[in-house]
Design a protein that fits this description.
The chain is mostly beta strands. The chain has 2 domains: about 200 residues, Jelly Rolls (Sandwich), CATH 2.60.120.200; about 170 residues, Jelly Rolls (Sandwich), CATH 2.60.120. The chain is about 5% helix and about 40% strand. The protein has 1 helix and 32 strands. A hairpin with a 2-residue loop joins β15 and β16.
Length: about 375
């Protein structure tokens, strides 16, 4: 065992890939097998993903021999999951509230914790309530594998994590090797590739130093359609005491209220008919379409009924992130955005261009690049 662990550590140090990438892509024929047999008495799994098609009944994962331990989009477009029952022919399943949790085609983080009977979709938490007999699967975990006659997952995978007895045992990140995508386990140094047909595609290379990007004066959203780009900040509207500041020049100011930012059950702000609209804001600052102005939002301490991530350039309808409406999509140039939670600076966004050409915001706190969580792309200069 000691020799095996030594080899695994050496393998990890050698880095068996060319570069880490922001995501890998699945076109409907690829899947990855991870050598673990799930157990819903002890296990939890988390996916960071974005579908690129709205086809319902697609699986994020399943087990290879018994179709158990499934996370999937169900027939009504909602987030749902199976759990293991001792009767192998009768898997239980439970859907989240489909009114609010229809994943659509934007970026999400979804965690199902079977051991602790909880599940989260973008900060909104639910309790796993169905009565069930907990049991172990007889098959290995398969990511993006086909279930029955339905459709394989088509989209992007950003990160996969897996826990057993509350201990993280897989930390899978997207990488590229020879122009092909893989999942690399940061804990073991193992790399997992496609077990289906074709190749797993790759996104842009991942960079974590601001000096590797071209800094811009601003990024801009010029469209107000469902596919318009936006930034998912990864900060929950229920994170605590929230303060924000932005340097902005509006493209339009009108009564349609298409200038709001944030989560509509938490913090949101923008401008409407010549005034700033927010929970509390610098009222002396007049919105402008000709000049950049810095606006500071006063402290927000509300408790949202449904939690969702704060967004730049739009808010989410009912915190669902389905984003099928165009009612609240900003048309503006954004030059800076800061977020404080409980008086600690958690995001300091500045506009940049990735070496591959994609425009977005670089967070100087996390040293992380944030690009559109939707299919659209930002412009900027």
């Amino acid at each position: 065992m000691g020799a095996l662990l030594t080899r695994r550590r050496e393998y990890a140090k050698s880095r068996p890939y060319d570069a880490e990438v922001e995501y890998i892509t699945f076109s409907g024929t690829q899947y990855i097998t991870i050598p673990i047999c799930p157990n819903d008495g002890t296990d939890a799994i988390e996916f960071e993903f974005r579908r690129t098609t709205s086809t319902n009944q697609v699986r994020l994962c399943r087990t290879e021999s018994d179709n158990r331990f499934n996370l999937y989009i169900n027939g009504s477009g909602g987030a749902a999951y199976n759990y293991i029952k001792t009767n192998g022919t009768d898997n239980g399943w439970q859907a989240l509230n489909n009114t609010y949790n229809k994943p659509g085609v934007v970026k999400h983080i979804w965690k199902v914790d079977y051991k602790n009977n909880r599940t989260w979709l973008d900060f909104d938490q639910y309790t796993i309530t169905n009565s069930r007999s907990k049991a172990a699967s007889t098959g290995r975990l398969q990511i993006c594998q086909l279930y029955s006659s339905y459709t394989r997952f088509v989209g992007q995978i950003y990160h996969v994590r897996y826990w057993r007895d509350d201990v993280l045992i897989y930390d899978l990140v997207p990488v590229r090797h020879g122009g092909v995508g893989y999942l690399y386990d940061k804990l073991s140094g193992e790399m997992y590739g496609n077990d289906g047909t074709g190749n797993i595609g790759i996104g842009m290379d991942k960079y974590t130093d601001l000096s590797e990007f071209t800094e811009l004066e601003y990024i801009e959203n010029t469209t107000q359609v469902a596919t318009s780009p936006y930034i998912d900040t990864g900060i929950s509207s229920g994170a605590g005491t929230i303060d924000m500041s932005m340097t902005v020049k509006w493209g339009t100011i009108d009564s349609a209220r298409r200038q709001l930012m944030g989560c509509n059950n938490g913090v949101f702000w923008g401008c409407d008919e010549g005034t700033y609209r927010t929970n509390a804001v610098d009222s002396e600052v007049v919105p402008s379409t000709t000049d950049f102005e810095t606006v500071n939002m006063d402290t927000y301490t509300g408790t949202p009924s449904r939690k969702g991530p704060l967004a730049l350039f739009r808010i989410f309808e009912s915190a669902s992130k389905a984003n099928t409406t165009t009612t609240y999509i900003c048309n503006c140039k954004l030059a800076m955005y800061k977020i404080w939670v409980n008086n600690a600076l958690v995001r300091h966004f500045v506009p940049v261009q990735h070496p591959g050409g994609t425009k977005g915001m670089f967070d100087k706190v996390e040293n992380k690049f944030y690009f559109s969580a939707n299919s659209g792309s930002f412009t900027g200069a």
